[in-house]
Amino acid sequence: MNSNATSSAENRRLLNVAVVGHTNTGKTSLIRTMLRSTEFGAIEDGAGTTRHVEQATISAGDEPILYLHDTPGLEDSNALYLHLQNISKSSKSLSASAVLAEFVASTPVDDLLEQEAKVIRQVLRSDILLYIIDVREPVLEKYRYELEILSKASKPIIPVFNFIADHQQELTRWREQLAAFNIHTALEFDTVAFTFEAEKRLYQKMQTLVESHYQPLQKLIDYRADVWKQLCLSGAKRVAELIVSVACHRESKNSNLEKVTNALAANRIQEFVRKAEQHCLNDLLSIFNFSEKDVAIQKIPVSNGQWQLDIFAPGIIKAYGLDIGSNAAKGAAAGAGIDLMVGGLSLGAASALGAIAGAGWSTFRRYGKEIKAAVQGTQWLCADENTLQVLYLRQQELLEKLMHRGHAAVHAVEVAASDKGKLPDKWVEIITILRQNPVWQESSVSRNNNKQYQEIEARLVDTLLGGDN
Questions:
Q1: Phi, psi of 165, rounded to the nearest 5 degrees
Q2: pTM over 0.70
Q3: Structure confidence at residue 183 (pLDDT)
Q4: What structural domains does the chain harbor?
Q5: Given pLDDT bands bounded at 50, 70 and 90, which one contains residue 461?
Q6: Hey, how many other C-beta atoms are within 10 angstroms of the C-beta on 468?
């Protein structure tokens, strides 16, 4: 079988979905969001960006399930409606779908209705139509014409309400108007303020309207749900890894050394925290398929690969509603955002020294470095509790926004102080345990299999995902 024949057979086996609608309603945006990719098509503020039909494949793993066909916008539905009426009058024996076919066949290249002909050609080839509606637009007669024209193809139509965030009144008005046209299958799918449940409901609508594709669509739903769960879990685990890494990190400080030397140690730990957060940001963007190019275009608060809002900038701790006095006072000699501690045991030097006599080999192997440091008068510098709280709350906010960001979004994402953040239960206990286990800073089989570590990671992840991972 030649390649063209193979392609035709594949098109017959898979569900063909035409994404249609007026110009600039978000058709390409919908496909980008469903593909989790910013690379498909072109998105601009001007009308008529898509000039040709473009195809994308949605798969469950390696198994293709459906084709999405991005069509040009319907630019002049009034003229198209009148033209179809004239065809119908001159050939009264033609069915409604045959009138559409005649229009496609008789419309030459460079005709004023050439764009509409491209749309109708794909409509006739498809199994189901997604009619995209920008709810911010008033309900005009041209949209009624479009729906009436599309209905002539005798294909299932699912109106999709786009840009619904903060536009509930407009959404209600659109629902009322569609109900007057006896259309009740519409659903909400915001391509900018994304939710996975909206995507899931879209596939479920398709199942009810095209029952011959029920099982493949169910396979797709199950697969996409599992992938989405794993994406969110990966993002939350990456944030947990950041908190563990920073909480376990320390720099040595000796009271007998010069202040300049100790100040350099404080600078090193601050730089470590900054870089650790930046690496976490990059990884989160990668997990959700937002590239550095997208960051630049979308003006996320990152400049030249660095956060514009420095975690140690004046006022950042206060902006997060945290206590700026107590913990900062501990590290006054080392610099803001730094805690001083002896031996990492939170027991004090005397207790640490007294533990030597009764310590077994396993205890000394775990805490020997700290006990030795206590004997020698070494102190450790580490990120203070306020710094760790800001890190956690800021990544929590970023993760939440990435999980609900459609790949068609072009507005700036602002990650700033939020009063909606939540710390895990027993936060202080978590930080204390992490500081007592500096060896956990790097991932290892021993650490990852440690029951206490697993419990800490689970607490951090569960809170990041709202208790449902």
A1: -60, 125
A2: yes
A3: 83
A4: 3-209 (3.40.50.300), 249-342+377-438 (no CATH)
A5: very high
A6: 7
